[in-house]
Amino acid sequence: AVTRTFSIIKPDATRRNLTGAVTKKLEEAGLRVVASKRIHMTREQAEGFYAVHKERPFFGELVEFMMSEPVVVQVLEGEDAVKRNRNIMGATNPAEADEGTIRKEYALSIGENTVHGSDSDENAKIEIDFFFDEDEIVG
Ligand code: CMP
């Protein structure tokens, strides 16, 4: 089925002017960008978005990183979008990412790993709603 997922092009990528390169990989993987905006996350947004990780030892570092430079938040649409996006992103740790994936090609470390993608349809909806109003999504 055609579904939606949520993606973030992270600060390590916007800083290196890779917004287009990352988006090209997503499009080549069969995903359509149906909403996109460049934002500079506030602390409130970064902490709220990653609230599920707040007990993790890297939470503080993660929040500081996500606020350090602009990001591009996107809604992606395609056949089985969550899985399709996770396949093209590659493993969280770039050292473990498959050849041809975004993280293999561009990620710097497990923290500065270029992209975020939703891990389930349920979380995709929550994450999309966190950053977008329905009228900003144009399929
Ligand atoms: P993301 O998919 O955005 O969701 C949680 C993020 O936490 C994850 O990508 C990683 O970038 C980050 N993360 C996971 N483990 C570590 C770690 N050990 N140190 C720093 N960041 C981490």
Characterise this structure:
The chain has 139 residues and is of the alpha+beta class. Helix content is 40%, strand content 20%. A 4-stranded antiparallel sheet has the order 2-3-1-4, with helices on both faces. The longest helix has 11 residues. It is globular. The mean pLDDT is 98. The site of adenosine-3',5'-cyclic-monophosphate (CMP) has 9 residues, from helix 4.
Report the total helices.
Answer: 7
Spatial ordering of strands, largest sheet: 2-3-1-4
Shape: globular
Q: Report the structural category.
A: alpha+beta
Task: Tell me, rounded to a whole number, the average pLDDT.
Answer: 98
Helix content: 25-40%
The gist of it:
The protein is globular. It has helices spanning 11-15, 19-28, 43-49, 59-66, 81-89, 102-106, 121-131, and strands at 2-9, 32-39, 71-79, 115-117.
Please outline the helices and strands.
Blueprint: E1 2-9, H1 11-15, H2 19-28, E2 32-39, H3 43-49, H4 59-66, E3 71-79, H5 81-89, H6 102-106, E4 115-117, H7 121-131
Antiparallel strand pairs: 1-3, 1-4, 2-3
The structure holds adenosine-3',5'-cyclic-monophosphate.
Question: Characteristics of this structure?
Answer:
alpha+beta, 4 strands, EC 2.7.4.6, Nucleoside_diP_kinase
